[in-house]
Amino acid sequence: KKDIPVANFIMHEIHCSRNIEVCRYCSELIAKSEMKTHIEAEHAQVTCKCRMKIEKCLLKDHEASACPLRPALCQFCDIQLTFDKLQDHEIYCGARTERCGGCGRNILVKDLKEHPGVCG
User: Residue ranges of the TRAFD1/XAF1 zinc finger domain (predicted)?
Assistant: First the structure.
């Protein structure tokens, strides 16, 4: 996948065909002697804590952005929950009320950010 001078091309082609393979999973060029290690390190199937089977190389992205058991913070109380429980918690948490120090009214927690603009 690189430009090779014409004078070196035949030797380069022989070297590559003997020593390099294309990974059948990710199309990367890997030394034949390292292919087994590459497949085990990058493409072996692992099970996430959410019980989803996924390639090892994709696990970090899955855990960070798609796993229903990834950590998430409530926008109202900053408690850490799993993502799959966040929505129900925020509905409950945002429906609580707190007394406004300015007007003395009880304000829904979900409306506290906008309240100063209409307070008084």
Answer: 78-120
